[in-house]
Fold each of these.
Amino acid sequence: MKLSQFGQKFAESTGIVDLMDDLGSALNENPEMIFMGGGNPGRIPKVEAIFKDRLESVLQDPEQLHSLMGIYQSPEGDKGFLTQISGLLKKQFGWNV
C-alpha cells in the first residue's frame, strides 16, 4: 500500500513502540527471567494474595465493579486514595503532601 508522507510518518516504527514490544515479549518468552527494567513490579506472593482477595470481593459487588471498570479516574488519581495516602505519609514521616 502506498502511503502519503504523513501516513508514512505514522506507520514507521518508533522508539517507544519498540521498547513496549521488547518489554511485553521479554517475560512471555522467558517467564523465569528476573526482570529489572521498564518499571515492572517484583512479585511478592503475600501482596499478590491480598490483591487477589480484594479483586475477588470487588467482582462480587456490582457497584464496586462498575466503579473499577466503568468510570475513568481523573488524571491525578482517586481523590479518596490520595487523601488516605497523604494522611499516612504525614503520620509516618511528617510530610505535608
Amino acid sequence: MLDSAPTPAERLPDLVGDAVLAPRTLPHDAALYLEAEDVDVSSTTAHLAARARKTAPELEAVRDAQRAAERGMAAVAALLANADDEAGPFLSDEHGDVTAERVRRTANAAM
C-alpha cells in the first residue's frame, strides 16, 4: 500500500506565500510544483550577498575547526612517519598495524 501522506514538494505551496525568491540552484521540479500551485517563483542572488561576509562568531568557529583539523592531520602525519613496513606488507609500529580505523581514531583523538 502506498503512503498517502503528502510529499514535501506537495506540502511546500501551503508553507509559502504567493511569491518566493529562490536561488538559481532551486531544482527545476521544485519550481514547477510551486508554479503549478500559483506561487510566483523568482530567481535572486540575495542569499549570496547575505553570505558574502561571515560574522565574528562564524569566523571564530571556522578558525576553531581549522585548528582542530590541523591537530588531527599532525597526529596522523606523526603516526605514519613513525610507522614502518619492514615487518610485513602493512605499516606498523610498536602498537601494531596502522589501519584506516587507527588513523581515524588518531585524528579524532587529536581534535
